[in-house]
Design the sequence.
């Protein structure tokens, strides 16, 4: 109805000054909420799009498809669409993947030269293949299994140089005979009619053919397109997400929820603090025939009128802020990227900055969430207004005296103090709401600071400083080239150098139950170490003879053939930060035998332990909480690998180079890289030095600073406008009380004092209410990480400056409100006040 | 024709000591009556008005307005009934400050989604002498003018009855007399049924009937009035 609209509009217009702070608070809350949502959305859709564009939007893929399965799925009514990949063993140490036409519309394969296969019998190959087979090039023909193919392009290949290469082609012949050719293998991608039933359908299918789903998944025969399914909120157990998804959802929701709460409280405060005139107005309107429904409608309209503009603006601004944040992070990344490139003197591909895509859905969600919050928080004030009794309202009687007892106030107190307490009591409800919103603001800030504190503690205590300036991992097929080792040793300006190989096996507790020490047993039983057998592993380090001899000498051990020595040491409690860990023996006896395997299915490998040591040699590595470390010579390790065969899941051999230098690290790094490039390709190593690490560290620190600063700023603005807003509104509401007090002889000074005291009591209450949830936040954070850091430790490390600032700014907000509130009370013509009554 | 009738109307405010504000009041008004109710402070006059206006409900008894028992109405129905059938004027704060005088007068109609009857509206504002003030805002009017606007609003729906609670209590002698005169005028010109609560003997004297409220009981002071009539 027009009149209700007009009443709402004029009332908002007339109280422009009062609503300004409300609008600012709403704007800020929406900006913060919107920024979070825009970023989450962009991350989510980016991932979704990436997956959709690269691996495709199928639901599940299954390989090793035989005729039985083929026949079944071809006729299965639950299937919407099927696509096949055919694998042909070329006999040239490589496999040809024939992919469907739709596959070639994706960006799965990155073409470096030439083009994608567009016709049957066209294939693409890798650089590696062309390098090793000089007679082939783009446009040349190649015969694979009696069939002629034409090479039309080269694709980007990320495998190690020594790994098998493969080709891609177009699967044109999709007849059953061709697909099920007995020499070749077949994979199917399935789109179900109902994606929601992906997991149950697949389990049903596998069950029919007696395939163990768990095993199939672990060996990669079965692959669910999880990121896509999760995007669609489809989980193995239906729509109920698994624990980790729930946890991460909660982690994202908590700040959003807190913000919405804060938001709701602010609006509630802004509209629930009634001044006498408004109450009278409503009473009058009611007596002139405005129904309760119409009153509610009017109040809700009023709330909407105040909030729509800030909500829309906030949503738009938040898009800008989200982009600004990503831009800052991009710049930041760009800085370290430049630093890193100057180290390697190479040009990598570096994606330029691009704007977060403006997602209309995100925008709608932000506006929707905000409006819902506004609407919900207007319900109570609206209901209250609707219930205002005409008689009481016309008398200007709004306090709910009945509800609290006679509240004896001590006359013996100073009058200002006693009145301040009286008012605090009679406006208890209003003050409660103000308190809550202040506490929420402080808590949201604390949430941020607690995580920050935790991360800092992690860095400080849960890591070990690497004493080596340069560390490089080299990946090979076989053993490390001896000439390469010699050349590295010839590098100039190197003060200390160690080269060693290593190989990792599973260390199942059951395989070693006889030798594990009682201390470790106890530790596992008491939950200080994990009882999950899969998570322990054995790493065998193969040192150069010289290094190994030194280790023996330092530990007074005699060299024997085929000698393995054990680091008989494991941490007592893996949930204690690294720097504070205590250690216990790993096995009962220093001379013993331990057992390991590549995986559950593989054979047991027994390692005789000649003796034990208790320090990691040369401090090459930190003590991993679940690693069992064994040392031998490089030759022994090579022999062992030869004897046991390669690990099917990880056939690569790893070699580590670590060095210390006091000279120019950049120069040494250059020399080092030039040396190894004589033997291996760029793809087969991973090298990092202190400069690089420092660059990354700085990038991260800068990122955190940006984020924290931004978030803190916004919270501070919210706190300020919120405090000002609520307190000011409250004072205005009590204008008549003040005028009466003045006319009863209270001086301005006394009024001032009384109001300030109220502010003080309010702050005191806020602090009291803040303490408990604050401790809970810290406690939960600590608990979530199994008390790695005790709550007190986290509190001790929290940067309290922003919190103190927040309280200071809240105080300032109250102070401003007191000032302007008092001015408007005292300066206003006393007659004006009375006339209004 | 009987417009208003109460039957054994009682109101007790419960508390540590119950206050009997109205005690079995039987009261009737006919079409075109102009009735005054006087009484000491605290005797229950306003309470009676609140009951008749339906903004509070009686502890006991019945109220009929144009034959409709308003004590039976739900709150929502009562509100609608009130805005169509009852005009109320208070001692002060009768107007909404942020809307124009015109809208203030038309408020009950607007809330009902109705348009005004042009001629009747003209007549009312001309009778009350506020035709030239329609586009002003309440705070640009004197106290007397504000009361005229309030009376205009109480009439705009052609209510069955107009209830006024000390409408002149806030005004000086001259204005007070003018407003009283206006009630008289309105009563005659529109044949309205009007009940005025007042402290002012002079106001009471100018009415047709006068009742006196004493401790929640209503007494007719018929004899005194006739000579003035
Ligand atoms: N809400 C209430 N609760 C308790 N008692 C009330 C309430 N409202 C009125 N009363 C009491 O009821 C009695 C009648 O009050 P009412 O307001 O009707 O008096 P009145 O005749 O209008 O007086 P005045 O001329 O001063 O306006 C008084 O004793 C008053 O104290
Ligand atoms: Mg009264």
Sequence:
């Amino acid at each position: 109805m027009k009149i209700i609209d007009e009443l709402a509009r004029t009332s908002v217009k007339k109280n422009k000054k009062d609503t300004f702070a409300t609008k600012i608070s709403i704007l800020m809350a929406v900006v913060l909420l919107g920024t979070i949502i825009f970023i989450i959305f962009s991350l989510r859709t980016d991932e979704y799009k990436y997956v959709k564009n690269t691996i495709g939007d199928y639901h599940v893929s299954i390989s090793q498809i035989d005729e039985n399965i083929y026949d079944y799925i071809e006729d299965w009514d639950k299937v919407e669409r099927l696509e096949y990949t055919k694998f042909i063993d070329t006999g040239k140490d490589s496999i040809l993947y024939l992919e469907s036409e739709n596959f070639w519309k994706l960006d799965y394969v990155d073409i470096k030269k030439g083009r994608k296969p567009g016709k049957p019998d066209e294939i693409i190959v890798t650089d590696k293949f062309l390098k090793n087979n000089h007679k082939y090039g783009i446009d040349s023909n190649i015969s694979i299994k009696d069939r002629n193919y034409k090479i039309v392009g080269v694709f980007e290949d990320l495998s190690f140089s020594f790994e098998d290469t493969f080709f891609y082609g177009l699967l044109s012949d999709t007849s059953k005979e061709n697909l099920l050719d007995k020499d070749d293998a077949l994979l199917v991608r399935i789109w179900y009619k109902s994606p929601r039933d992906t997991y149950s359908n697949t389990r049903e299918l596998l069950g029919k053919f007696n395939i163990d789903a768990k095993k199939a998944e672990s060996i990669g025969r079965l692959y669910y397109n999880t990121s896509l399914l999760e995007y669609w909120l489809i989980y193995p157990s239906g729509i109920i997400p698994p624990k980790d998804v729930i946890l991460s959802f909660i982690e994202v929701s908590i700040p959003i929820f807190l913000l919405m709460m804060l938001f709701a409280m602010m609006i509630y405060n802004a509209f629930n603090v009634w001044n006498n005139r408004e109450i009278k107005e409503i009473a009058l309107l009611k007596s002139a025939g405005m129904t309760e429904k119409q009153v509610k409608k009017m109040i809700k309209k009023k709330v909407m009128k105040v909030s729509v503009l800030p909500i829309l603006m906030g949503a738009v601004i938040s898009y800008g802020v989200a982009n600004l944040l990503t831009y800052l992070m991009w710049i930041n990344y760009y800085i370290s990227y430049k630093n890193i490139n100057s180290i390697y003197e190479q040009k990598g591909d570096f994606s330029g900055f691009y704007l977060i895509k403006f997602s209309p859905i995100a925008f709608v969600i932000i506006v929707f969430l905000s409006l819902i919050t506004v609407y919900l928080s207007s319900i109570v004030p609206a209901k209250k207004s609707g219930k205002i009794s005409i008689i009481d309202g016309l008398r200007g009687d709004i306090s709910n005296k009945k509800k609290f007892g006679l509240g004896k106030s001590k006359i013996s107190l100073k009058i200002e103090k006693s009145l301040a307490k009286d008012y605090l009591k009679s406006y208890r409800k209003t003050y409660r709401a103000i308190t809550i919103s202040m506490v929420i603001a402080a808590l949201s800030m604390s949430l941020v600071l607690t995580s920050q504190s935790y991360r800092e503690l992690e860095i400080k205590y849960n890591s070990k400083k690497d004493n080596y300036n340069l560390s490089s991992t080299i990946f090979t097929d076989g053993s490390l080239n001896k000439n390469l080792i010699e050349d590295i040793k010839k590098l100039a300006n190197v003060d200390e150098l160690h080269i060693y190989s290593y190989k990792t096996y599973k260390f199942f507790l059951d395989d070693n139950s006889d030798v594990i020490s009682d201390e470790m047993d106890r530790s596992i039983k008491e939950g200080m170490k994990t009882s999950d057998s899969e998570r322990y592993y054995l790493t065998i380090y193969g040192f150069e003879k010289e290094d190994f001899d030194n280790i023996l000498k330092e530990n007074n051990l005699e060299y024997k053939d085929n000698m393995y020595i054990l680091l008989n040491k494991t941490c007592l409690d893996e949930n204690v930060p690294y720097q504070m860990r205590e250690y216990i023996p790993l096995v009962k006896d220093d001379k013993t035998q331990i057992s390991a395997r590549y995986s559950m299915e593989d054979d047991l490998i027994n390692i005789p332990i000649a003796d034990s040591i208790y320090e990691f040699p040369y401090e090459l590595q930190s003590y991993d909480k679940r690693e069992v470390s064994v040392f031998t010579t490089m030759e022994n390790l090579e022999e062992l690998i030869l004897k046991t065969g390669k690990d099917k899941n990880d056939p690569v051999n790893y070699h580590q180079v670590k060095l210390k230098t006091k000279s120019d690290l950049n120069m040494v790094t250059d020399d080092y890289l030039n040396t190894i490039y004589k033997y291996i390709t760029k793809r087969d190593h991973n090298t990092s030095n202190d400069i690089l690490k420092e660059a990354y560290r700085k990038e991260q620190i800068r990122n955190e600073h940006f984020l924290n600063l931004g978030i803190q700023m916004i919270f501070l603005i919210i706190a300020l406008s919120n405090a000002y807003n609520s307190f000011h509104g409250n004072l205005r509401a009590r204008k008549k009380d003040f005028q009466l007090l003045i006319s009863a002889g209270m001086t301005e000074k006394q009024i001032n004092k009384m109001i300030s005291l109220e502010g003080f009591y309010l702050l005191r209450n806020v602090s009291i209410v803040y303490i408990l949830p604050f401790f809970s936040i810290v406690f939960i954070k600590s608990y979530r990480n199994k008390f790695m850091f005790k709550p007190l430790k986290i509190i001790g490390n929290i940067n309290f400056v922003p919190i103190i600032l927040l309280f200071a700014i809240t105080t300032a907000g109250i102070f401003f409100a007191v000032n302007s509130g008092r001015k408007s009370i005292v300066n206003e013509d006393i007659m004006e006040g009375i006339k209004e009554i | 024709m009987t417009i208003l009738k109460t039957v054994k109307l009682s109101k007790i405010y419960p508390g540590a000591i119950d206050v009997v504000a109205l005690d079995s009041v039987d009261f009737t008004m006919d079409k075109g009556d102009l009735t005054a109710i006087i009484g000491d402070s605290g005797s229950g006059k306003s309470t009676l008005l609140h009951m008749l206006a339906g903004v509070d409900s009686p502890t006991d008894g019945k109220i009929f307005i144009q034959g409709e028992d308003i004590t039976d109405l739900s709150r929502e129905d009562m509100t609608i009934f009130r805005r169509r059938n009852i005009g109320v004027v208070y001692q002060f704060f009768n107007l909404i400050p942020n809307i124009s005088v015109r809208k203030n007068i038309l408020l009950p109609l607007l809330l009902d989604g109705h348009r005004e009857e042009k001629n009747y509206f003209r007549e009312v504002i001309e009778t009350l002498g506020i035709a030239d003030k329609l586009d002003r805002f309440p705070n640009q009017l004197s106290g007397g003018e504000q009361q005229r606007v309030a009376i205009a609003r109480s009439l705009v729906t052609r209510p069955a009855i107009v209830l006024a609670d000390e409408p002149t209590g806030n005004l000086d002698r001259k204005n007070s007399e003018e407003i009283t005169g206006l009630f008289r005028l309105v009563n005659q010109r529109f044949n309205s049924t009007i009940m005025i609560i007042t402290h002012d003997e002079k106001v009471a004297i100018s009415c047709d009937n006068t009742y006196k409220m004493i401790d929640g009981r209503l007494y007719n002071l018929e004899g005194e009035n006739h000579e003035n009539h």
